[in-house]
Predict the 3D structure of the following.
Amino acid sequence: MSASKSAVAPSATRPTSKIASRRQRWGYVYVAPFAAVFAVFLVLPLGYALWMSLHNKGIATAGRSVFAGADNYVKAFTDPVFLEGLWRVLRFVLVMVPVQIVVALVAALLLDTLATRLSRATRLLIFVPYAIPAVIGALMWGFLYSPRFGPAQDVFGLVGLAAPNFLSSANIFGSLVNIVTWQWVGYYMIIIYAALRSIDPSVYEAAVLDGADGRQIALRIKVPMISSSMVMIVVFALIGTLQFFTEPQVLRSSAQGAIPSDYTPNMYAFATAFNYSQFNYASTLAFALGFLVFVGSYVFLFLTRKQSGLK
Amino acid sequence: MTTSTLLSRSRTDRAVQDTSGPVGQGRRLGSHVVLVILAIYFVVPLWWLAVASTKTNAGLFAGDALWFGSDFALWDNIAGLFTHQGGIYWTWFRNSFVYAIAGGVGATALSVLAGYGLAKYRFRGRSAFFALLLGSVMVPMTALVIPTFVLLSGMGLLNTMWAVILPSLLSPVGVYLVRVYAQDAVPEEVLDAGRVDGAGELRLFFQVVLPLLRPAIVTVLLLTTVATWNNFFLPLAVLRDPNLLPVTVGIYNWQALSNAGAGGEQVWNLIVTGSFLSVVPLVAAFLSLQRYWQGGLSLGSVR
């Protein structure tokens, strides 16, 4: 989106003298502090993870790092636990991302057409969960789901039903989808809402004169016009969901037995590193997951480059 | 921020006109019903948390989860947080503040400098670095936790506050937002006028650029502070000393112990009250700063 701008900009500010060209070097001064942190806490860990994933260290190697080639990756991509975790987060992506986007979009479209005190209050209330730490959000829902503490029995009792056990193996998937939806819809809604607000109303005034109703305007005019924001939040949701960790990790102790310690690839990597001290294999899992997330979001951005305006 | 609030104000009038007429009235009612249902869904868990923090340990199991119990025990619970394990909860609370402020302010400062540098100076390697930055937005941060743990351990920083603060200084999204914003918000003419008047680059930055970037600064500060305050994976991995934990990890540990049913460790009332108190600062910050972030969060989506 900014690429097109920067393509035009240089001609306007092209250094014309020696002093001006020397001035451009100030750019290094401004970028240097961030670049240092970027190098130490992003490039270095990534490189180190790659290096560790290509080596092995343990009792069998007498505590020294020994080059192992692609052994760890062969192990990872034939490891049923890792593959099952990948498949699970993929299913989370397929369910959770559309649910979140649809709820956020509906809320934003409704809020965009209303300007009442109630709609302003609702906008804030929907957003508030974003300010709640994921740990606290998951813990809270854990209480609400709990047959011992929760209001589920009271609520379902009103209509004469028995409350389902939200924390059973059969229901835990939906229960987790609900927690994440609750937590993130507000953030996505605000981004979509801000994008809708920036549309010039004259764009669809003609459609109103032609007799288009609110739903047609929303789907045919507004949604296509905010597609770059939509692409962005889908990428955010995609990246977040593939690294699913906090919510299942917190719910684990409440939902006894329903969430194993290797429920998602990230939880598996964490347990491998900190419960079994297999840092080489854990790095392999983390790097493989990171690589898949990167490729996945890159492919998505490539497929939607027309909508997003990114080149 | 002023332009965005003005913008939404003028749009407000238009929105009211759209829905006039009898058909509009019916649709407005329907829309409001949907909004009320949504609002209830998003608020009920927080309502529960507020109500539950006024209950005793026994009261939490007594049913009527969504309404107050017979005793009002909020003050007792807060007092309990001061005595349980020597009041360690308040140490966690303070730690969370230290991490969030150090990480948030630090990450924002680095983002503003780098974003402005990338937007307004044409140094060699600029495009390459910006491409690298865009790519890094897609690197999942959790993939970095395990190698970061090993690296911090090599530097002897494991189990210190630095182990949480230093990695939190990294915010590629923050740099990206400032860069996009600075492109238009800081006109070349203003910079050139300052240079003609003899202002140095640093003076320009502090006296001219910083005030122009204020909306972007507030937004990035809010985003990075929230990210650090909410951080869980990193402190869980790099901290062992209970006195260094942020409130998120501390409460997580209490909850895991209570669920394990370890003798005498069932402190549900303290977990609930502790959770409630820990969400108050950020919710208050968001509600009081809304006019800043509402315009700012859309920065990343401007074409």
Remarks:
- Confidence is low (pLDDT under 50) at residues 1-21 of chain B.
- Chain B touches chain A through 111 residues (CB under 8 Å).
